[in-house]
Amino acid sequence: MALTEKQKRFCDEYLIDLNATQAAIRAGYSKKTANRTGPENLSKPVIKAYIDAKMAEKDAELIAAQDEVMRHLTAAMRGEITEEVVVVEGTGEGCSDARIVDKQISARDRLKAAELLGKRYQLFTDKVDVTGAIPVVLVDDVPDEE
Questions:
Q1: What is the pLDDT of residues 89-144, one digit of tens each?
Q2: Any residues with CB less than 8 A from the CB of 69 and at least 6 apart, and which?
Q3: Distance from C-alpha of 87 to C-alpha of 101, rounded to nearest angstrom
Q4: What are the backbone angles phi and psi of residue 101, rounded to the nearest 5°?
Q5: Which of 102, 7, 118 is closest to 54 using CA atoms?
Q6: Rounded Cα gap, residues 64 and 24, in angstroms
Q7: Eight-state DSSP code of residue 145
Q8: Element (H, E) at 96
Q9: How far from 82 is each of 61, 78, 105, CA to CA, in Å?
Q10: What confidence tens digit (pLDDT) does each residue in 30-50 have?
């Protein structure tokens, strides 16, 4: 079953502020019954599925995925990222001008990105993972008491 145009408007309005009553009013439902219509719409499986899908899309857009983070760290490490800084220059007679300049990120920031990448790929390990069996050897070195 597909959404009607009014139900789709309701869903899109609901996603703005997550207020079912107000979404129903803005979508064109009666103001008198909006406090019942809104929650009733949310209980319909087709509407719930549409809203869940749209919320998942928003989450995917807002939250960086692992490969995006890795690409950013790699670009930072390689010095491909710039940042804006304010530079103040003297113009003479005690006056100065400020302007914004793009500059490469600092060596410290590049090193931090390399460190984070190294940790991700376990290039620097403080602990050593050892697997295997170690045999237990019993030694009878306790002297006999006579």
A1: 988 888 999 999 999 999 999 999 999 999 888 887 767 677 888 888 877 766 77
A2: none
A3: 7
A4: -125, 140
A5: 7
A6: 33
A7: P
A8: strand 95-104
A9: 23, 11, 5
A10: 999 999 999 999 999 999 999
